[in-house]
Amino acid sequence: MPPTRDAFARLAQGELRDTAQSIVDLAAPVHTGWVNLVTLADITAAAERIAGTAVRTPLVPCPWADRPLWIKPESLQPVGAFKIRGAYNAIARIDAATRARGVVAYSSGNHAQAVAYAAKVFGIPAWIVVPEDTPTVKVEATRAHGAEVVLSAVGQREAVAYEIVERENATLVPPFDDPGVIAGQGTIGLEIVADLPDVDLVLAPVSGGGLISGIAAAVKALRPEAQVWAVEPELAADTAESLARGERVSWSVADRNRTIADGLRSQPSELTFAHQQALVDGIVTVSEDEIRDAVAVLAHRARLIAEPSGAVATAAYLHHADRLPPGKTVTILSGGNLDPTTLADLLKA
């Protein structure tokens, strides 16, 4: 059975916040007012800019699955996650003189690596602000690209980043609240429709919302009949509640940091939320146990390594099939950067 409008009311009242059954039907798009959404032309231009830097990842068929499934492994990117698409496109759009002064980013890890990598390609300085609880593997990888890594207290990374921007006269590259970043992430949608023209359903992680905003913009432009659904951890389900209420709802940093999916602890901006309201068909939340199980299934069955944040879309496919639209499904494996000890623990669970 498809989700009903009753889900909106129940979620808005807080009844579904901490359950794995949180489903919201977003079949009726909401007008975005003054906000300009990213267009197919923006995304096509981004694809031209990132060609040769970002990998055009394949769609991996999954014959072991009980329904038609393909996985888009963005873990194969040079930085181990999809973020290189948006970061490189955003930096490429900056005029050369301004770009030469350097770039600043704040990130839970994968955007940090992406900006550092792109800055190295352009030969410019980069300052990356990461929370002090960021996994060590992500911090070390960012430093390896030559960026200066600045650790901040949890919840303070944006403030620290803006201080560096002012001090260095550098340019901020946001992790999601930027049309260039969204367009870059949207190139994933272009590739999905090119490789699977009759795709019926795309499942993508959501947090800050840049990824699903770009993917939805591309897929809806090229194959309007396909559905695009968001997936997020139930312990950081601010987007699900926001979509249910029809306005952005803030969850505390402490609440959002409960999830093992450390890359999905942000909240949507006005820009990304407008994309979600207009273009995303539904949202489902997944439990911590479901995320862990998906990491193991991806490793054992698909032979793909996924960090917890990268496994949530597959978790939705595995555990909420009865609540999702049928048909040919693509799940976005958004990243594979995690500590070896964490991976070992997840595979033993």
Q: Main beta sheet: strand number and arrangement? A: 7 strands, mixed
Q: Rg, please?
A: 19 Å
| Elements, N to C (H/E) | HEHEEHHEHEHEHEHEHEHHHEHHEH
CATH class of the largest domain, please? Alpha Beta
Low-confidence residue ranges: 1-31
Please give the CATH architecture of the largest domain: 3-Layer(aba) Sandwich
Q: Strand-residue fraction? A: 5-15%
Distance between the termini: 32 Å
Number of domains: 2
The residue-averaged pLDDT reads 89
According to CATH, the fold-level topology of the largest domain is Rossmann fold
Give the number of helices: 15
> Order of strands across the biggest sheet?
1-10-9-8-11-3-2
Secondary-structure class: alpha/beta
Shape: globular
Count the beta strands: 11
Level of helix content? 40-55%
Write up this protein.
- Helix content is 44%, strand content 14%.
- The chain is an alpha/beta fold and 349 residues long.
- The chain has two domains: 6-81 and 178-348, Rossmann fold (3-Layer(aba) Sandwich); 83-172, Rossmann fold, CATH 3.40.50.
- Strands 1-10-9-8-11-3-2 form a seven-stranded mixed beta sheet, sandwiched between helices. A four-stranded parallel beta sheet has the order 6-5-4-7, sandwiched between helices.
- Strand 2 (60-61) and strand 3 form a beta hairpin.
- The longest helix is centred in the middle third of the chain and has 17 residues, at 179-195.
- The protein is globular.
- It starts with 5 loop residues before the first helix and ends with a helix.
